[in-house]
Every structure is written in C-alpha cells, then in structure tokens.
Design a protein that fits this description.
- By secondary structure, the protein is of the alpha/beta class.
- It has a single domain (1-448), classed as 3-Layer(aba) Sandwich (Rossmann fold), CATH 3.40.50.
- 43% of the residues lie in helices and 14% in strands.
- It contains 20 helices and 13 strands.
- Strands 1, 2, 3, 6, 7, 8, 9, 12 and 13 form a nine-stranded mixed beta sheet that branches. A two-stranded antiparallel ribbon has the order 4-5.
- β4 (128-129) and β5 form a beta hairpin.
- The longest helix is centred in the first third of the chain and has 23 residues, at 2-24.
- The protein is globular.
Length: 448
C-alpha cells in the first residue's frame, strides 16, 4: 500500500512539474528568444498528454459555498450576452440588511483577473459574519477589532454595498450557452474583444435593471481592469456616467513588459491551436487534484504550490502559506485559447485580436492589422488607480503611458512603495485590509 502511494505521489509530482513550467510562461515569456517560446510549447505538450490520463475535472469550492460558509446568503444570476453566451454573476446578500434597505445600497461589481473568477475576492482570509452583523477575521481583528478586513467581497457587503461577483465568459462559472456546448469549437471563438463589446455591457445593464440604480461602482483587478478600460474607450457616451467610480487594482492596459510578441508566437500559432483548440487553463489545477495535494502534503505545498502563487506576482512577505491551497483551488479556472493568444500578441497598448492573415483582418477591421483601442476617448472623472511600485506584470511605464493617453486626471491615485508587495497582493496580501481595502472604502464613499 505504501509503495502504491509513493508511486502515485511520484507520478503526480512529475505531472505537476510540467504544469509548473507552463505557468511560468502563462502570461509573459521570459525572453524574446524563440527558443524560450519553444520550451513553453514543449511544456504544454507535456501537460496535454498527462491531463488526458488524469481523472475528471474536480470543481473547486464554489463561490456560493464560500459565501454561505461565512454566514452570508448567495444569489446566482444568469445574464445572457450577445450570441447566446450565458454569464453567471453571484450576489453576496447580507442577511442583516432587509429587502427594503437593500434596494438603497450602491451596487459594486467585482471583476477578476486572467484565468480567475469572482472567488478571488472571497478568499484572502478566513472569517465569519457575527451575530452583531460585523465581519470578523481572526488574523486581523484579534489584533485590532476596528481594523478593515482583508477579504474585499465581505468587507464591502458589511459596509453598505450590494456586491456582485463577475465571472468572465469561458471560466467554469460561465460556460452556459443558449445553443452551443463547450465541446464545440464554435463556443470558444471569442477573445477579450467580445468581453469588452458584449459581456461587460450586458452585465452592467442587468445589474442596473435588477437594482434599479442609475450607476454601479466597478472594482477590477488586473485583466478585470483591462476590459473596463476597453469599454470606456469604445462606449464612453453610455458608460461614463453609469460606472462611478471605476477602481483599478493593478491596472493593465499597456503591455510593454510582455516579452513575447506576435512575431515570436507566429511560428507556433498552429501548434497552440492543435494543443489547446478551445480553452486554455480550464480546471488544470483541479484535474490534477492539486488543491488537495497542497492541503495534504506540506512538501507539495512548499515546493510547488507556494511557488506557483509567487509566479502570479506575490512575494514571500505577503503570502500566507496556510491559504495557498485555497488560492490554488480558485486558480486556472479557464478562458479561451483565443484570449490567451491575444494577450501574447500585445506589445504596447491593448489591440484587438489579430487574425492569422491580413485578409481576415481586412474583412473584420477594414485594415490588414488589428487596430488599437483608443484610450484617448476615455473621459470619465471617476477613475481610481491603486498599484504597487514593483509589479512583474504592470511596469510603472505602462501606467504612465495609460495616463498620458486618457488625458483626464484620475480622481484618486495610490502607489504602494513597499517593494514586498506584488501584483496579486492587492487582493490577498497579509495586510491588504489596512493598506488597500480601507482606501477602497474611502474612495467609494467619496466618489460613488
């Protein structure tokens, strides 16, 4: 029996090592050299072959479960977007707020980053809703009962806001469709452009209709900021007034630090589609049983899972190792391969998806190359930027370029100079309640 366990652990370790090498390059290749791109392709082949041998997809702890375990209620809302795509938004309901009072709450939409889900805003720390209606996190409030908690979703829900968790098209929470199945290639023919043009407007319109409120607040992290910048650049006449404020955590609109360009990826386009013809990253952690392995075996947690979280842009100083299995359980929840390729195509400001041949681009865009999003059209006076000084994915030059494009001044700006803070620490850092969430509450009170 022990030999069998040892064999299984060894097998898992080999597969997970291959997965780790993929994640190292999942958003940014480390070099412009084509050989480095080739290494990542080999890693993808390794994972594809092994995933086919592994057990079926094990769903993560759902957002509804995370919410109800903390003492709140959860509502699932299904929003139909253009083309029949059905998106799931999960609403956090504070049981201490009556139905009549809830109608007066300001709706706040929380938008996750790449390959994540709305649960990113629910897992920073353990906590529970107490009988007096306050939200309590042992690690935070045992030291200071008046401190702001680390878990933004629940902090907002107990601070007078109507919280909605968004789930992007194609992740495990938003795979329904009026007539297509995720087993069909046609389902996965979307990129960021469809999220910007169709899904985000449909969601905002739906929430406003349900809540009967003239505007919503929007808090995005990483790629959750990208889609809002895209929307405000393409439909400013409608959504400038309807989104107030827009709080960007680790804003991503420029990609000057993304080392691999479409030039590097061009030789591998067919290979990537052969390996992953539909989705990218959907349930990879769960298929491998990685969350359970992290929780059960400390050496797996320390040697692999902890390192994977660091690759998302965190630091040793900010990672709570006891939370790593939870973070892993809520990672790699999926998107389309086309979205992955679009991200890899970016070299400067966000551009539309570039098709493989000029003729298709000419047919779709009226020109042989995909056009850029015109951020000079953004005129919102309700923009807020919160970023860290040292971010492996968001260079300060990228933020400078964005602000130069937008031209209107940001309503609020805050930079964390402490270099122990990274990209994902704006959600999960050990002291995120004091450093980030307290400011979010203040900015919402000032601008919403």
């Amino acid at each position: 029996m022990r030999l069998r366990k040892l064999f299984l652990i060894t097998l898992f370790s080999a597969v997970l090592a291959g997965l780790a090498s993929v994640l190292v390059y999942q958003l940014h290749f480390s070099s412009d050299d084509d050989g480095e791109v080739g290494k990542s392709i080999v890693s993808l082949i390794f994972v594809k072959l092994n995933l086919n041998l592994m057990f079926r997809f094990l769903k993560p702890t759902t957002q509804q479960e995370l919410i109800t375990r903390r003492g709140f209620h959860a509502e699932s809302h299904f929003i139909t977007s253009q083309g029949g795509y059905i998106l799931q938004a999960v609403r956090i309901v504070n049981p201490f707020v009556g139905e009549e009072d809830r109608s007066s709450l300001k709706p706040v939409l929380l938008a996750h980053g790449y390959l994540g889900a709305g649960s990113a805003f629910l897992i920073a720390a353990e906590g529970h809703l107490r009988e007096d209606g306050t939200y309590f996190e042992e690690e935070v409030h045992a030291k200071d009962p008046k401190a702001v908690g680390n878990t933004l979703g629940f902090v907002l829900a107990t601070s007078g806001y109507d919280v909605w968790l968004l789930n992007a098209r194609g992740n495990v929470y938003s795979t329904n469709h009026s007539h297509l199945s995720t087993d069909q290639d046609e389902y996965w023919q979307f990129s960021l452009d469809e999220l910007i043009r169709y899904d985000l407007p449909a969601t905002i319109d739906y929430v406003r209709a349900v809540t009967k409120r003239p505007s919503v607040a929007y808090i995005g992290h990483s790629l959750g900021t990208t889609v809002m910048y895209g929307l405000l650049a393409t439909q400013p006449e409608k959504y400038t007034a309807q989104v107030r404020p827009f709080i960007a955590l680790a804003p991503v609109a420029y990609f000057t630090r993304m080392k691999a360009s479409s030039r590097n990826l061009a030789p591998w386009r067919d290979t990537i589609h052969w390996l992953l013809p539909r989705s990218f990253g959907t349930g990879w952690f769960q298929r491998l049983g990685l969350p359970r392995l992290c929780a059960r075996f400390r050496w797996v947690n320390d040697a692999l899972c902890y390192r994977l979280i660091k690759r998302t842009g965190s630091t040793d100083a900010q990672i709570d190792r006891s939370r790593v299995p939870v973070y892993i359980d809520n990672g790699m929840l999926g998107s389309s391969t086309r979205t992955f390729i679009q991200l890899m195509q970016q070299t400067r400001g966000l551009r539309y998806f570039n098709f493989s041949d000029p003729a298709t681009n000419l047919q779709v865009y009226g020109q042989e190359e995909s056009p850029p999003y015109d951020f000079t059209r953004i005129v919102s006076p309700f923009l807020v930027d919160i970023h860290v000084k040292v971010d492996r994915y968001v260079d300060l030059e990228n933020i400078r370029l964005l602000k130069a494009d937008i031209r209107v001044p940001f309503a609020r700006e805050y930079q964390i100079d402490d270099q122990s803070w990274g990209h994902v620490d704006l959600l999960w850092g050990k002291n995120v309640g004091k450093v980030v969430n307290s400011r979010v509450l203040r900015y919402l009170a000032d601008l919403a």
